[in-house]
Every structure is written in C-alpha cells, then in structure tokens.
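To whoever is on call:

I kicked off a structure prediction for a single chain this morning and the downstream step that reads the tokens threw a length-mismatch warning. I double-checked the sequence; it's 165 residues and nothing unusual in it as far as I can see. Pasting both halves so you can look.
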Amino acid sequence: MPSSKPQIRAASANDAEALGRLGTLLVEQHYSFDPQRFLAPTPQTAQGYGSFLASQVNVADAVVMVAELDGRVVGYAYGTIEGYDWPSLRGPAAVLHDLLVDPAERNRAVGQALLDAMMDALAARDAPRVVLVTAEGNVAAQRFFERASFRRTMVEMTRELKPSK
C-alpha cells in the first residue's frame, strides 16, 4: 500500500540522477511559460542540473532536501543563505531557489512538507527571512506560497535586446 506521508531528508550526492530528472521538469515548465526568458531544456539538462544540485549538498550555506514517497524521490527544494545584496536592496536572507514536486505526485502534501522542512532548516541557520521568485505564469506556485504567508515584494520584467533565434 502506498505511503500517504512524504518523507523529507537532506539530499546526498547519490540523489543526483533524481534531482536531475526533477530539475529538468522545472526547466521544461519555465521554458513553456516564456521561451525567450528561460533556458531551453536540452539532452544535457538532467545531468547538468543534477550535478549542480549534488554539488550543493555539502556547501555550508546551502540546503538541498528531497521528498520521498514509497522510497522514490518525488520532489526537492534548494535554498541558500546569503548576505547583503545591494543591487536588490536586500539585507541578509535565505533564498528559496527551487521547490518542485513531480506533477504525478502533486496534491499529496509533498510540497507543503518540503516547504515546512526547508523553513525549519533555514530558521535553524538564523536566516531572518526567506525570499523567492516565481515565474509570472506559475499561478499555482504563487497561490501556494501566498497560502504559506509569503508576500509579493518585487516584479521582474524582461525586454529582449536581440531577436530570438
């Protein structure tokens, strides 16, 4: 019988393949929102994204977590602790870069479990706040984060200088 509760744990380098598969889903989703703004998925995306996230698992100011259902990695979250960011007019904060759940496993409280665990991990590292950015077209993510008490503070805007190829 399938487990009803996701298990959240720190990611390890052994999770690189699963992280790459999930990272590819993130790239594909964002590319579908705006192919001029976001990277196009390529055959190298899974290996590149997975390697990058695996490289972060032992970085002191980074947190990479995975969510498992029935022993399978079905989601991940990646955040970092950062200092002052003068161009963003932001003091020290944690930045939640990614939170993704495999679409086939959504609506099973996986995203909420990942977010809760990430907030706990970042608070344990004395982060005074957490900031994140969502794609304009990702209304579901925006609603999810608003329900978790995040508020809108910035709007990114993009203008192409050269025609896309």
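Update from on-call: the warning came from a stale cache, not from the record. Cleared it. Sanity check on the structure: The mean pLDDT is 95.
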